[in-house]
Structure formats: structure tokens, C-alpha cells
Amino acid sequence: MKGYRKYFGKKIFWFILTFIAAVILNFILPRLMPADPVASITGKLAGGNADAQAVARIYEHYQEEFGTNLPMYQQFLRFCKNAIHGNFGLSFSQYPRSVSDIIGSAIGWTIALQLPAIIVGWLLGNILGALAAYIRKGFDKVLMPVSLFLSNVPAFGMAVVLLVIFGVYLKVAPISGGYAFDMIPHLSWDFIKSVISHYQLPFWSIVLVSIGGQAVGMRSMSIYELNADYVKYSRFLGIKDRKIVGYVFRNAMLPQVTGLALSIGTMIGGALVAEIIFSYPGLGSTMYAAVTAADYPLISATTLIITVMVLIVTFLLDIIYGFIDPRVKAAQVE
Amino acid sequence: MKNTLRQVFHSPKFVGGFVIFVAILLTMIIYPIFNPGNPLQQIGVGTFAKPGTYVSLYDATKAKTETFRLPEADENRLAASLTDEDRVAMIEYFNAMEIDISDLDMDDTDALLQLWEDNYDPSVRPKGMTGARVNYFKRLNNSLQDLKSGDTLVIAEEGEDGALVESKTITTTDYVNTNAVANVKSLPLGTDNFGRDVLKELVSATGTSIMIGLLAGTVATIIGLTFGLLAGYLGGFVDDLIMFITNIFTVIPGFVLLILISYSIGQEQRGAAVVATVIGLTGWTWTARSVRSQVISLRNRDHVNLSKLSGHSLGRIILTDILPYIASYVVMAFILQVSSGILAEAQLSLLGLGPRTTEVPTLGLMMNWAMLYSAHTNGSWWAYFPVILVITLISFSLNLMNTGLDQVFNPTLRD
Amino acid sequence: MKKLIALALAVVMVLGLSATAFADGDVVLPREETLYFCGQQWGAVNSWNPIGTNQNNSMAIAAGAGWRELMFETLYMWNVLDGKLYGLLANDDYAWNDDMTQLTFTIKDAAKWSDGSDVTAADVIRTFDVGVEIGNGTGSGYGPYIDSIEGEGKTVKINAKLNDDGQPINPLMILNFLELVAIAQADWIDQVYEANGGDATAILNDDGLNDAGELEVPYTGPYTMYFSDDQKVVLVRDDNYWGQDASMWGKLPVPKYIAHAMYADNAAGEVALKAGEVDVSQQFIGNVQNLWLEDGLPISTYYEEAPYGVCLTMPTAWYNMNMPVIAENPALRKAIAMAVDYDSIIANAMTNQSPSFADVPRSLMNPTEGEQALYDHDAVADLQWAGNDIDGANALLDEAGLVDTDGDGIREYNGENISLNAVCPNGWTDWQASMEQVAAAGKEIGVEITTLYPEADMYNTVFTDPDQTEYAIFMWSPDASSPSNPWSRVNQFMGMDYLGVTNNWSGNWGQYENPEADALIKKIPLTTDEAELKDLYTQLTEIYLTEVPSFSLMYRPSVFHAVNESVWTNFPYEGQTYTMGDGTEVLVPPADCTDGFGVAALYNLELVG
Q1: Which residues of chain C lie closer than 8 angstroms to A293, CB-CB?
Q2: Residue C506 has what pLDDT?
Q3: Among partner residues C18, C54, C504, which is closest to A44 by beta-carbon distance?
Q4: Interface chains of chain C (3 or more CB pairs under 8 Å)
Q5: Terminal CA-to-CA distance of chain A, rounded, Å?
Q6: Count of CB pairs separated by less than 8 Å, A with B
Q7: Number of C-alpha atoms within 13 angstroms, CB side, residue C527?
Q8: How much is the ipTM here?
Q9: pLDDT in tens, C229-243
Q10: Mean pLDDT of C60-72
């Protein structure tokens, strides 16, 4: 047990350190961008005001409101203090909307789009990969190159091709927005149907690309396991094929589960392109808009969310692996 | 070594990928020989000319003609000016104008045209008819006028006194051999929004993008390899520190980091090489991780320990006792880095954060301009689809090679 | 499985959304009662405050080809086609006194606020006064020209600010006030003023809503806020609208709802237009004719043929006079302008939705007939250029002694290679394409020109800075059409009022200094004699074409207008008129169905079939 304590203690220490460094980077990087968003807001607010003093007054007002007149380290402390309370300040580009409000209205869309897409892509991919490894022959010969090809279609390429074929030519699915153009959000079957129909294209564009990658990975892992000594030994012992296959795929799944967990962790950054191309109202679009408008409170907050999610997932994985993977156990003893 | 190569080239997957990749490279080298010139030159005035072969109309009128009496010619000509849809539309117009058409046969072209000529009035806007429809009838009327204009066209040139002098007449049975026309331009993929030859641009862009991929891959592999070797071999605090840095780069996803850095650099500084370097600088983490885990499994092997005992320097041990064992692995990682570098450039450019536009075409920039000009929604497939296809093919061929290599070096994966 | 997950998530999300949604009214907008727009609103509306400045409310508080008259109305409506003002809140009776120091008009008896109270002189006075006090667009835009507004009941008198000679500074700008300033209610202004303790910045930032997100601000227009989130904004008709009185429209506008979905980009809006989900598009659509020629869609524009729309302004490349090489070499300025291939710009960037410079020779005027008649074409014909004149440009440079002495292909000035950049915001595709052409022209004449596309926010910060030396050639559009044009535009091209002004969004962005031109410009607002006016404009055109402080790249509408007639029809088309109460026919401009007199289109609309 002492080994575990030491192992986890060390892990936690590095995690906390990583977290702090990541928060600092999240804060600093966007602020290195060359634009001056306060000047830009001032320009908007001052309209055609030619009175230099009046403009300077407005500028100072906003500097104070956003705290951009403070030294960087004080801004950082302010940012941390507020962030703990879930307050990421006000957005520059959508002023006076608060960052939390913007993220709140976008994050639901992203999760609703991504989570099912990742899970479905993962499930289908792994099933196909496992089948390919098990059946081999013709199925594998066709499936393997097709999967590899699909997984190499760039995400934006898949999105554009789906958009053109199903949205523009066949007109079977809407290509932009989160719900129908003639609706106002409300609770009804029609609205839900509309949400789902707007959901199809971005959904499939993510699923199709991920199926390929997952299938290729699962196939390799399965073949690797099928050729492993324990399989030969089991066969030699006369254990039923079905049972062996069960073991094989369970073992082959392990790295795939890691992959699933990681892609759930990174899902916000992952769907950037699909969201942008389909004008989907999620966090990816939000972040992209924030970057182009140099809206760094918004950028910091979105990247922070991604960071925290990835950290949590990797941390949990590490902990779980620590308990279940004998190789990690061995490492602790060392 | 020779043996390894032979093995590698026996892998059908590797060979498949290799052939595709070499084919792309060869096209890149050979095509410009046949179609030289600046790929960014704007040959077309106007946007998105369709793929096809363009014959100079001016030169065609000067070329020697042959006379062919083709039975289907008149029919084709009529069909081009007056479609079945147009016939239905004409009936719609007559109805809207409340004209009696009870004894009209829609297929009787002459009668239809006569009735049209008698009744069409461009100045009247029938009640309830949309503006778009009114305009449609005006265009239809113009095209019907052409139909009526007879079998000959007269070419006239301006004489010395400014009067027009007839220089040639063209009849419906005149044909010109395309070889006899002085200027024929073949544009297999049409032109883009700037009026550039898409195929020429695509070939040149593929070259640039592969260079970007190679540079990005090299940068990423060198950093990843160095960090991985040091972390894996030395262990302890160095390992912790390097893994710490690696972790930071992992928790802030590479692509997000890439966007932020590209934006901060500003477009003025963003040449293709800079973009490639930035991509490399943000993409090395997983190479480092995998190299590290490989090295960890190697570092306690006997031959390494022997070297250590013999007092060999760190550099020598790494170079002679470790690197050769992971070389195949590094090559595979490099291939994947190249492929993801090409993809990263394309995605960055698509978001408007790619290299400066005026100097060299890249696959991402072509995609970006096509999307900015709505090529995907206005049916100009030639401006974006070949780009997607090329990116996919490059990436596919590299990954195929990689899988092939994997199977050669990891016998357990063999089919 | 996937369907189940999708469904479950959709339900959760809908529950979340509907928690914030509202209860009464249509939740599915009836297609045949709703007019859909695109190309105006790109993000969630953040304010409904007509005297505030921090707002992006393009449907309710904005101006395009005139003020957008849907919710907050102006005194008069501007018609870009005939260049006349038509009474809206006010009667058609505005009149100057003899020395043009005072303008008098009356407000319509029928004009009422949404709360039922009368629109009176007090509202106009308070709108102006508070503007001056808090420094919003009204204050800063008209404060320099209007001394005070007085009046009682329905009669309003605007007193012009006078110069040292006792003449009004600029009567034209006072006419602009009539059509560009939406009137806010005096009582409401007092309320907002008190609630914010008189703090200017707080008032400018007030969003016009109460804490529950309900509209607090009274309005006079035919529409009001119905729904607004980050995907959509919807206005609903106010059936108590005062304008159904016979003294105004005599009826209500046809569509019950005005809706605008937020599209991510032009392409998304274009697809929606094609699909019939948008009726009126204010987006630039490349090769718009293909929508009907090739796709056979029921889409039309104002004119059937190119340029398809009414071009009212000219996006212009400005030379930065803070840079000595530019300021000291008029020949360089002219040579670059002569070498640019405008036909390519117009064909590629504008896909021919602009007249060419051969059709409408360059001057200070937009291509409308009214403005074109304001200068003597023959007098300046020798000075005009149509572009792509490489030989001419090279000769001009050689003559001016700007030659390449070190043989690197680039000409030098004072021993240094002439190297400039050509800049416009990233993502503004037609401008970017134009800058590419300017750079290409540089190559032909031995001047190094590189393009640069910073993000819009950064661009705005730099180009409005009067001391900047970062951008050598950069783009911005001058004024389009208003009562004060072409004077305003000419003033933007060469006026010295804007020299050294910080945060200069107003004009003369290149900081060009020419006292002679400035003196001529100053005379125009007070000149009423037509021949004299023409002479002044001709002289100014001569100076402009000789000195080339900037050069226009194309002509462009101030709002684009493409309509899909799947549901609605009888949108403005060439020659279409609106019949006024007194039976006169007035041309309806293609002003997005909302701007200035263009709002009359909403009363002309009919359902298809």
C-alpha cells in the first residue's frame, strides 16, 4: 500500500503542477495576441466621436472595467480569484455579455453533438475492427483500406463533402444552425425533431472520420492479442473458441477505452472544424469567433475548460490503470 | 539493411502507399514541365470558369471551316434554346396573360413561337407573377429571338472610314477542327475565384504542402526524439521535468495552441516555413511519449548495461545502443508527423490562419479561398474537391506505408 | 442505440433551452406571415437602447441606405433613388429661413409612441441634448453643426451652429439629422438618465431591457422585439402602429414577423437564401446571376442585368500620407492607381456587380445620375484613368525620377527601394481580392507591394489612428448616400477637419493635407447656386485626380439586395413605385426593405400565388 501512496502522491503532485502551468499558459497566450480589444470596444462605443478627451475617457473606463490597466500578474490573480467562483468576466466581443453566459449557452450544444458522435463512432469502429480481425479474408481486405482511407479524410473535408451532397444537392438535411429557421426554442416534438435533423450532418461528419481510425486501431490490437501466447495456450488447453475470443477482445479494448476517454476529454477542441462549417452553435464556433475577435477572456475560459477536462480524464485514467494494470504495479515497486 | 528493405517492399500495404505517394511526387515534378509558368497567375477575368477545353472564339472564326450536314444539328440547336421546360413556361405565360390556347399543340414549335411573338410584351408585368419569373420570360424571349435570327451569322470588321465591312459569314453547317484553331486552352479543373488555373495551382500547392509537412515532421520528430530519449534513458528528475512539459502541451490541445500561436505571430510573419515550424513545435508531444516508453524498455537490456559499464559516454550509448533499436519506430513516427503536419496546415489555413497568400499556394489556402467564395455552395466542385482528395490521398498513402512498416517490424501484427 | 442517445440528449437540451424560452405567441413562425433576412445580424443582439452606442442591433438600431425604420423611426425617410426626404414622424413641411440658420418642421399629429403618448418636439429636443451630453453618435455627429433645438407641441425648430461670419457651418448635416437620427422618448431618456445617475458611459451601455429581459424602451415603429437569442432575432408587428393612420401609410406593413437567423458566414446565408429560408439577402453573393440562370431559382435582384444593384459608394484604397515616400511623390500615387487592373477587380472581386471605370469614369461621385451630373465630365476627362495602364504608369515614374538604379527590379526613392504594403481586414474577401490586384500592379511597375490581412479588430485600431505608419495602402469605404452627399464624401476624401483626430472613424484616413481643396470643400454646404456648385465639384475632382490621395477600386451598393420569391413577391424592382396617400408614385429603392424610404417595400409585399 505504501507503494501506491507514493505513486499517487507523486502523480497528484505533478498533476497539480501541470494544472497550474496550464492555467498560466491559458491566461498568458491569448493576451500575447497583438490586437487591443479595449481600443476596439472604445472605437465601437465612441462611434464617430472626434473629441479626443471623451474617447480617452471611454478608453480608461473600459481599461478599468476589464482591468487591462493593471500589471499582468495582478490581472492574473484577479482572473484566478474570479475563475474559482465560476466568473470569467465579461466578453470583449459580445460585451456586455458575460463569458459564463456565452459558454453556458454553447456548451450544451457541443456536448449534445460530440458525446453521442464520439461514442457511436467508437462503438461502430471497434465492432468493425474486431470483426475484421476475427473474420479476416475478404471482409478485412476491403474494410481495412476503406477504414484507413476514411480515417485520412480531413475532418473539414468530410464535413464539406457531406454538406454539399446531403445539404446542397439532395437537400435531405439542413446545413446550418442548431434548429429550424422558423422556430423559437420551446418544448415540443417538432422542435426536438428539428434539433435532431440539424444534428445529422455534423454528427455523421464526426462519426465517419472516427470510425476509420477506431477500426484500424482495434483491428491491430485484436490481431496482436489473437497472436499472443496466451491464446495459443488456451487453444492448446482446449478452451472454447468463443470464450477465447471474449478474452482477446476484452484485452484489445483496454487501449481503445483509453482512447475513448481521451477523445471525450478533448471533444471541445476536436469538433472545432465541424462546428464552424455547419454553423453549429457550440463551443468550437464560440472559440473560433473569440480568437478572431481577440476576445481573450472568452478564449482563456474555453481553453481552461478543455484543459480541466483533459486533466481530469488523464488523471482518472492514471488512477484506474494504477489499480488494474499489473505493469504499472510493477513500476511502482521499482 | 538490404534485407529489411526487401522485407519492407514485400509488404503490399507499404508498396501500395509508396506507389500512391511516388505518383503524387512525380506529378508534382513532371506536370510543371508540360505546363510551365507561375501557378498564381490570374489567367481568367472572372471567377470559377468550369473545367473543360476552351477554344478562342476569335481564332475559331479565322480558322478554315469544313461543311458538315449533321442530321441532329438543328435539333440540338433548338433544344439548347427552347427546352421542354421553356415550353411549359410559355404556356404558363399565355395563361397568365389570359390568352386562348385551347387549340395550341405544345410540340408544334412554329405555332408556339408564332403565338409567343404575337403575345409577348416585355413591358407588361402580369399580376401575381414574381419578379424572378418576369425576368425569366425576358431571357426566354431573347433566346427565342436568336433562334429566329436565321441560318447565317455575319462577321463584320471596322473599315477605314469607320463603317462596318462584312468579312465573313458563318452558317449553321460550318465546323472548325479544334487543331486548326490557334488558341485552345485546356483547363481540366477550371479556374478558381481569382481566375487561376486550378490544376496548375493544385500541383504547385501539393508541393508546398508536402514541404510544410516534411519540415513540420522534422521539427516535431527532432524535438520529440530528443526529449523522449533523454526522459527515457536518464529517468528521475529529468524524466519528470520532460513529462511535465509534455503534459502541459497535451492538456492544452495542440490545435488550440496552434491557433493561438499563429494568431499571435500575425500574418506578416507567417511564411510557409514559419507555419511549418510552428506546427512542428506544437506537435511533438506524442513522439516524445512513445519514444520514451520504447527507451524505457530498452535501457535495462544487457547490451546497454554493458556499454554503461564500459564507461561509454551518454551520447555514444544513445547513438549506438539505443537509437538503432528504435530507428524503425522513429521513421514511422516521422511519417505520421508529416501527414498530420499537412493536415494541420490545411486546417489552419481554412480558419484564415495559414501562410500569407501572395507568395505560394498551399492546399489549405486553396481550400480557404474556395470556401470564402462559397465554391461549395455554388456548385464549383473543382475548386475544393480535388484539394480534399489530394490531402486525403497524401495522408492515406503515408499511413498505408506506415501500417506496412508496422507489420514488418512488429511480426505479431502480420496478417 | 445512437438514435436513443441522440434523442435523450436532445430532450435534455431542449428542456434546458425551453427553461429560458417564453410562453406566449407563436413558437413556430408561420411561413406566410414572416419575412426572413440574412446578412445583417451576425451575433446575439446585445442592446435595444436607441441612444446607446454599445449595440450590434442591426435590425432595429442601424443605418444602411438610410436609417433602418423597423422599430425606432426618424423624422424623415431618405430615398436613395430620387435623393429626396419623405416625412415619417414629421410632415413634409421642413423649411429653412432665408439665411439657412433655422430649419422648421412639424411632427405628424398621428405620430405616437408605443405607450400611446404623442410624439412631440420635446422628444426631438431631448434626443439631441442627451446625445451631446453623453457623446453618442447623435451628439458627436451633429453637435458640431446644430446649436440647439427648440419648439413646442408639434413644432420643431433646429438652430444651426454659426461660424465666425455668422453663417451656418453646414446646413447639409442638419438634413442628415432628419433622416439618420432615430427619435427616442423624452420621458424614457429621463428615466434612463436617472437610473444610471447621469453617468455617460453607463447610459451608453444601458441595454433598454429590464432585469427580466423585457423591453422597457418605447418605440414608434411598426415592429417590436419578439424573441432574441444567439441564433435568431425576431421582431413582431405592433398592430397599434400609428402609421396605419391615413396621414402616413394608411395600413400596416404586410409581414407579421421579421426574422433574422445568425448565419456563421456568407456561404451559410447563401444556402439559406437558395433553400427559400431567407427572403431578403443583404449579403454579397458572387455571380448572383447563376442563382437564376443555372440553378433556376426564383431569385431576383433590383436590376435584371449587371450590376444588379444600385451602387452608391466606392470602396477605396487610401494612401498613408504619414509616410514620406507616399506624401512626397504624387507621381508614385498616381502610377500605382493607373497600373491597377480594375476590370479584373470588378470581374473577380465583385463578379461584375459594379459598373466599370470605363462606364462611370472615376471622380468623387457615386454612379447615380444625380451625383454624376454634379461635375463637368469633359473638364477632367484627361485626368481620369481606367486602369491596367502599365506603360503609362512606368513612364510617369521614370519622368518623376523614381527609377531603379541598382538593377534589382525595384525603383528607389532617396536611395531606398520603394516597398509598401496593401492592407485590409482578414476575411473581407472582395477587398482582399482587390488588394491582391494592387500588389500585382506593383510588380509590373517596379514597386514592391505586399499584401497584409490583419484581423478586423486590429485593423480598426490601426487605421483609425491618425499617426500610424504601419499601413501604406489600406481600404475603407467613404459615405454612400444621404442628404449631405456628395459633400460628406468629398470631405472624407480631402477635408482637413479629420487631421490628427484620434479614433478617427470619420474620414480622410490617409491624413491628406491640402488647404486649397479644404477651402473649396468648406464653401459647398453654403452654396445653393447650381452652376457654382458644379464648378466647385469640378475643381475638387481635378485636384483629386491630380493629387491622388486615394483611389477607388470599384463601385458598390451600400446594402445588397437579392430576394427569393418563393413565398413573398412584389419586392422592389427597377421602376417599381409606392403609391403615397396623395396618389403620387414614388420609386421604391432596393434598400433591404427596411432602410429609409426602402421600408415602403414592406407595404407593397404580396404572397406568391
Answers
A1: 455-457
A2: 82
A3: C54
A4: A, B
A5: 14
A6: 122
A7: 17
A8: 0.82
A9: 888 899 999 999 999
A10: 91
- Which residues on chain C are in Cβ contact (under 8 Å) with A48? 137, 140-141, 505-506
pLDDT tens, residue by residue, B152-197: 888 888 877 878 888 888 888 889 998 999 999 999 999 998 889 9
Distance CA B27, CA C223 (A): 61
User: In whole angstroms, what is the distance from residue B374 CA to residue B377 CA?
Assistant: 5
- Is the Cβ pair C348, B194 closer than 8 Å? yes
Summarised one tens digit per residue, pLDDT across range B7-36 is 888 888 889 999 999 999 999 999 999 888
> Which sign, positive or negative, has the C-alpha torsion C351, C354, C360, C361?
negative
Q: Does B261 touch chain A (CB under 8 A)?
A: yes
Fill in the DSSP letter of residue C500. Answer: T
Separation in Å, CA of C351 to nearest CA in chain A: 22
Residues of A in contact with C265 (CB under 8 A): 279
C295-352 pLDDT, tens digit each: 889 999 999 888 999 999 999 999 999 999 999 999 999 999 999 999 989 988 888 8
Taking an 8 Å cut-off on Cβ atoms, the answer to whether B267 and C426 are in contact is yes
d(CA B206, CA B411): 34
Among B356-370, C8-22, C367-381, the range with the most confident prediction by mean pLDDT is C367-381
Q: Give the tens place of pLDDT for each residue, C191-207.
A: 999 999 988 888 888 88
Determine, for residues C348 and B193 on separate chains, whether the beta-carbon distance falls below 8 Å.
yes
* C108, HSE (Cβ side, Cα atoms, 13 Å): 24
Q: How many residues does chain C have?
A: 609
Q: Any chain A CB within 8 A of the CB of B264?
A: yes
C587 φ/ψ angles, rounded to the nearest 5 degrees = -60, 135
Element (H, E) at C568: strand C568-569
Q: Which amino acid is at A87?
A: N
Nearest to C344, CA basis, from C465, C276, C444? C444
What torsion do the CA atoms of A311, A316, A317, A320 make, to the nearest 10 degrees? 160
What count of other Cβ atoms lies within 10 Å of the Cβ of residue A216? 24
Q: Is C506 touching A (CB cutoff 8 A)?
A: yes
Interface of C with B in 257-286 (CB under 8 A): 266-267, 270-271, 274, 285-286
Q: Which three cell numbers stand for residue C288?
A: 448572383
* DSSP H or E run through B157: strand B152-158
In C415-444, the residues whose Cβ lies within 8 Å of chain A are 426-427
Cβ–Cβ below 8 Å for B376 and A152: no
d(CA B218, CA B211): 10
Q: What angle do CA C465, C470, C476 make, to 5 degrees?
A: 60
CB A199 within 8 A of CB A112: yes
Distance CA C393, CA C149 (A): 53
DSSP A233-248: HHHHHT--HHHHHHHH
User: Cα–Cα distance between C603 and C183 in angstroms, integer?
Assistant: 22
Helix (H) / strand (E) containing C546: helix C530-547
Q: Mean pLDDT across chain B, nearest whole number?
A: 85
